[in-house]
Structure formats: structure tokens, C-alpha cells
Amino acid sequence: MPSFTTQVPNLKEVGPVVEVRLAVGSIIEEISRKSSKDVPTPVQALAMIDTGATGTVVQEDIVRQLNLNPVGLTLINTPSSTSVQCYEYLIRLLFPNNVVVEGVVIAAPLKGQHIQCLIGRDVLQHGVFIYTGYTNSFTLSF
User: Fold this and answer.
1) Residue 55 in contact with residue 105, Cβ under 8 Å?
2) Are 75 and 83 in contact (CB under 8 A)?
3) In the chain, what are the domains?
4) What is the pTM of this model?
5) 114 vs 5: CA distance, rounded Å
6) How far apart are CA 142 and CA 128, in angstroms?
7) Could you give the CA distance from residue 125 to residue 66 in angstroms, rounded to a whole number?
8) Cβ of 6: how many Cβ atoms within 10 Å?
9) How does pLDDT run across 69-127, given as a tens digit for each residue?
10) What is the bridge-based pairing of β-strands 128-132 and 117-119?
């Protein structure tokens, strides 16, 4: 079972954050390669594992950097708004230790946050998330 463990100096204050790379979905990459188009370089982002988020969310500028086209539309609720319309995109999440998860993510502003991505329960449903507060660490296994 591929996994990684990360230690965050002040886990309680900062949260379970991890550096990830966000890449185009494998289907999009394959189509681009077959048609001799450049495949966008994965984008580095700070992601927070969020058991309160139903779906995985990325900042809108990331999908622009990856030159992605939407694959769907969804409505989300935020702490300050309800029924916010957002586009969905096919993305690969590249975690440490070559842990790769592919799926549809939601693009949203994430204003005022120190992160560019929220890892939601749509990703977590495929794995095991262990939060060990007394050691300021967490583990994510798939």
C-alpha cells in the first residue's frame, strides 16, 4: 500500500499540509502526446487534507496554468456562501513517495488561504488517513 508520512512543526495551527504536484489527467496527457502537443508541466501546490470537504478543490489559477478544459459543473457550499457554481476538471494529484491519485476536482478561489488545494473525502475514500497530534505528523496511505 503506497503511503507517505509528513511531520508539520505545528500541526494544530497549520493543519495537515503537504506539498503536491498537480498534473493533467492521464487521458488528457495521452491525447496530447498522440497529437504531438506539449503536455503542461505539473504545478507545485501546498495542499491541506480536509476531512470536512466533500470534494477536492484547487485554486482556479492552477487549472489555467495546466491549460485544462472543464469536464463538468457543480454547486458547492462554503463557510460564507451557498450554491456557488464551479467548474470541475480532470487532474492527477502527485503526492510524496510516488503516491498518485487521479480524479475530478473543483476549481474555486480559496481566497485568504495559505494553501492552493484541499484534499477532500472524494480522495480520502480510497485510503487511510492517520492524524497523530502528539507527534505533529500524519500519514496518508492508498
Assistant:
1) yes
2) yes
3) 3-141 (2.40.70.10)
4) 0.90
5) 21
6) 6
7) 26
8) 17
9) 999 999 988 777 788 899 999 999 999 999 999 999 999 988 888 999 999 999 999 99
10) unpaired
